[in-house]
Amino acid sequence: MFGMPMLEVLIGLVFIYLLLSLICTAINEMVAGVRDSREKHLRAGITNLFCEGTSQKLAQLDIVPLRNPLTGETTKHGAVATFYAHPLIKALNEDGTLPSYIPPAVFARVIMDMFAPADGKTPYCIPAFVNGVNTSLLPNADLKRTLLVLAQDATDNVQLRSFLEGWFNNSMDRVAAWYKNRSQKSLIIIAMVVCTAINADSIQLVKDLYKNPVQRSSVIAQAERLVNNAVPTSTTTSTTSFSKEEVEKLVATLGKLHDTGFSWGWNMELLANLFSGGWESVIKCNLKLFGIMLTAVAASLGAPFWFDMLNKLINIRAVGKSPTEKEKEPTKAKAGAVAE
Hints:
By secondary structure, the protein is mainly α.
């Protein structure tokens, strides 16, 4: 095993980025949970799917009342409200809130029952579904046309359910992309706040790691333990929900790094040095800001990225020369060379 200082500095820096990324992701998930972001994005996707409005502007909905598929009478609810009022959907509600996930099979069954209600006597058939769509959705041309196209291509009930599930899955792929984009923006903001609050300056972190071999060894030991004992769901997935205990453990790990000599946090001496006046102060402040921004951007890349990077770097560090090379050139071998 080779003790290359720069490689060890890089491993330590990646390990810190991984920890900060996990903490920022945990905070982001907590904020999303408080704001019911997943539930709102799913409803936005359903709204867009039913052509009652755009997913990005929930305040500008064009609700078209449905008609009763059996009697033709106009109801007081639109397609989205009727969908969420269905017993199969209400059974998915979480602690009084809307569901954050709807199985495709449940979606398909609810759609079929909305336009061809089950009465326990009449066998379900595609003609009944088509008749219900024509009766219920007369004013809503877009949704009506979509459902009729799907029904027209289906040869039986099983195939129609499959088409409805595919239609739903394609829409949810877009919703997932919207949520990921929104979540990434929030993650960057959270990372900036966290890194500024703890003074996580990448430039200073590199200096600390390079100048202190004991500190560097301690960090690498923690990184190796993390890689060897990592649980995939908590380390390699950026969408994992974190418990309060897991967040406390991550914060405690950062505290242990502080005990090894890292320049975390702020103090009066540091602030006085930064704002001492003159061009030197301007340069120091700009470097500090750049270092914190660099750390925040790195933390926003996500835990999976840094975990993979850390794993590769630790494997590189553990690589030695091949036995054949040692036998052929025992006197010419250079310390620190990596076998090809």
